[in-house]
Structures are given as C-alpha cells and as structure tokens.
Amino acid sequence: xxxxxxxxxxxxxxxxxxxxxxxxxxxxxxxxxxxxxxxxxxxxxxxxxxxxxxxxxxxxxxxxxxxxxxxxxxxxxxxxxxxxxxxxxxxxxxxxxxxxxxxxxxxxxxxxxxxxxxxxxxxxxxxxxxxxxxxxxxxxxxxxxxxxxxxxxxxxxxxxxxxxxxxxxxxxxxxxxxxxxxxxxxxxxxxxxxxxxxxxxxxxxxxxxxxxxxxxxxxxxxxxxxxxxxxxxxxxxxxxxxxxxxxxxxxxxxxxxxxxxxxxxxxxxxxxxxxxxxxxxxxxxxxxxxxxxxxxxxxxxxxxxxxxxxxxxxxxxxxxxxxxxxxxxxxxxxxxxxxxxxxxxxxxxxxxxxxxxxxxxxxxxxxxxxxxxxxxxxxxxxxxxxxxxxxxxxxxxxxxxxxxxxxxxxxxxxxxxxxxxxxxxxxxxxxxxxxxxxxxxxxxxxxxxxxxxxxxxxxxxxxxxxxxxxxxxxxxxxxxxxxxxxxxxxx
Length: 491
Ligand code: NAD
What we know:
alpha/beta; 7-stranded mixed beta sheet; 2 domains; Aldehyde Dehydrogenase, Chain A, domain 2; Aldehyde Dehydrogenase, Chain A, domain 1; binds nicotinamide-adenine-dinucleotide
C-alpha cells in the first residue's frame, strides 16, 4: 500500500477570522475508506459562531477590495509555492480521507494548482476595456468584487473542487467562505493553513464545517452575496432554489451519468485504456467518470481490451476505495438488480479481494455489466462507483437517442477514427464537455469546467474566463472632463 494513513486522530475545527475555533454544535468522526479506522474528528459550528465568522469575513473584505489585483496576486503566488512544497503530504492526507490512491490525490491537487495559476494570470489578461466613445467621452469596464462569497464542496475532490474557486474568488477581491464535505474535511485545514502562511489577511478565508445546517446558515447570512455549490443534483437544486429565492446569485454543479459512444473503427488500444481508466479512476467516484458504454456495431475486440485493462488493476495500489460502507452496499445491490433484469456481469468487482491488512475498507473491484436495458437503473441512475453499463446500439443515431434521454449533461465521449462521426457526437450529444478519444474530457485551464441540464443550475462555468462574471460585477464607467463644442446626442 503506497498511502500514509494518519496514525493519530486529527482534530479538525473551523477557521474563523484567521484562527482555528472549536465548533460548539457537536462532532463527527472521520473514518478512512481504506481501513474504516477513525482518522479525524471534526467539530461543528453553532449558528452564533457561523454568524460571527461571516461578519468577520465581511469586515476583512473591505480592505481587501481596495488592494490592487497585483498585490492580491503576490499572496496567491506564495500560496502556490507552499502547496507545491507540501504537495506530497497533502496528497496523502486527501487520499486517506477520500479513498483515492496517492497518485489521484496528487493529480487532483495539481489540477487545483492549475486553476490557481489561471487566477495569477488575471493581472495580465483581465485588463478590462476602455474606449473613447465620442469626443472627450470615455467608457470603461471596471471589475468589482461582490463582497463575501461562499462555496460548498463534495467529498470526492477534497482539494481540487475547492481550488476551482478559492483562487479566482480571492483574486477578484472577495472574502471566501468554504463549507467542505463533512466526509472529507481534513484537507481544508492544510489549504487554510497554506493561505495563512502565504500572508492572506485574517477573515478572507473562512472554513465552516458540517452539512445542511451550516449550508443553510451560510446562504441566509446577509453578508453572503453569491453561493457556488458542487455535489449531487438533488442538493445542487435545493441550494440553487434557496439561494436564488433570496435574490442572491448561485451556480450549482450537480451529478452526472456520462456516456461513451464506441465505434468499430476506434483504435482498440486507445479505447481499451481510455474507457477502462475513465470508469475505474477515483474508483468511479468522479462526476466525469464514464458510466454507460454505448457500443455501436461489432466492438467485441475493444470490449475485450477494456475488460483486460480493468481486471489487471490491483485494489489499494491502482484503484482506491469507496467513501463509505453504505455506498459499497448500495453498489453491490445495484449490480444485483441489473443482473436480475437479465444483464450479464462480464467483470465482477464483488469478487475482488481487499488488499491484505485493509480488509475493513470499502472495496469494490471494477465491474462491467453487459446487455443493460436502456431506461433501467444501471443505464440512468448515477451509481458513483467503478461500474460501467454496456448498452448495444445498432448505429450512432440509436446511441445518441439514448444519450439524449439522460437527465444529466456533464460529459460525453466518442471513440472513433472518423472526424465526421466525432463532429456528429460533438453537435448532437447533450453534454457540456465532450471528448474525442478521451475518456475523461476535463477541460484544462483556461478552458472552463461545467456541464448542462441537471448537471448544472445557473449560468456560466465554475472555472476559467466564464467564472469571472459569477464572482464579480462589471461596473461600466462613462467619463467626461471638459465641455465639448461639437457634443453629440450622447455626450
Ligand atoms: P452531496 O450532494 O451529498 O454533498 C455535497 C455538499 O452538500 C456537501 O458539502 C454536503 O455537506 C452538502 N449537503 C448535503 N446535504 C445538504 C442539504 N440538505 N442542504 C445543503 N447542503 C447539503 O454530494 P457528495 O456525495 O459529497 O458528492 C458526490 C456528488 O457530487 C456526485 O453526485 C457527483 O457527481 C457530484 N460532483 C459533481 C461535480 C461537478 O463538477 N458537476 C464534481 C464533483 C462531484
């Protein structure tokens, strides 16, 4: 096992006005998915503590908003260097609490650092616009922060998902309130401490632990002007409705059921690795994981490659664990229900052996369910585990018809050598992110991240250029200093 699981229980609390404060509303135990052992205890904030924390954030933001972007960027640059220095340790911690492998933990943090680098580049690329619109009259854009903004994050990427928004929101002059997942809160301590060490003034980053009660109090706080959310569709919709109902802006990313269209002319090598890695990476616990394989025509040799690659993965080293035992039991039951409907299990993860010494962990091996019925649970419900359902389709039209019936719209990929077929999938699939011979089509920065349909409530994307107008306002300024003799109707 190449992961260092904390040997002592880590005490995790709330980061309020630059200090760690023990919550007064009870505690939650944090158990490692690797072995079920308690590795942390997190204390939850009371309503009074939440209110105090957000007020402190509001006060701190006033000065921060006055500082030039270049000054804010200097602190974020220090933050980047500290994260790079501590990359190894943070990756072990986030893997220990989320069940990822060390490599996956590291990759998630690196992707977060890529967003941080984008935020650092804003001082050079987001320079606004100015134009003389008539004689002696100028119009310009000025970007202004919103004030206090909040973000609520899921368990599956304890560093990457928060890092999609922390650097951009702070760079734009906001104070940021973060509510990490109650299942994976330990990484938040490392990120907050890194920002403190980088020189971020107290109050500009607040970390409040807990679940629904904390989220509701954050949304209701009058100082909070915008709420970002990443998690399941059910909660994304709830948070979106509650936040926008209070007249605040919200961008809420939800769940997914991602399809891959596999055509006979695809490279078996690319398809074998790309599709297998897509549904097994992070033990299938990622919103970009392939979940349904739409097999068009004779693709038997490709499927053999997918099975070979997936069955070669060793639990604990090549593939991590599931977040909870409850989730493991749900997946085992879902596989059973698909089988009862006549599907064939051609790779059965239920039989996979736990790594030695980690028998108490939440393990399920890669599972491939063939001949799944369109419309059934395995074809439509987000299972969130290392499972792929194969549906056989007579042609691309049939495959796209199935893809288009999904309530979600996060990702869709096609494996083919035909440019025309690829173009058709790009145009006709209902998905915000499309991959051509790429199993996990996560856009790299500065291309922004975001799905459509039930995978996202609100407009714009959560990263990149299309996130800027979410975390800030554009003030339009029109200036004239002298009376002009030839003034026209607008000047
Ligand atoms: P979740 O919806 O259970 O929890 C997400 C966050 O919401 C957590 O911080 C949690 O504490 C909070 N929460 C839970 N119940 C709440 C309630 N009633 N009111 C307010 N807040 C509440 O999601 P999860 O299980 O942590 O994460 C997995 C889900 O996230 C999957 O559906 C996955 O597809 C999705 N996800 C989506 C993206 C994306 O970019 N679209 C990225 C990562 C994960």
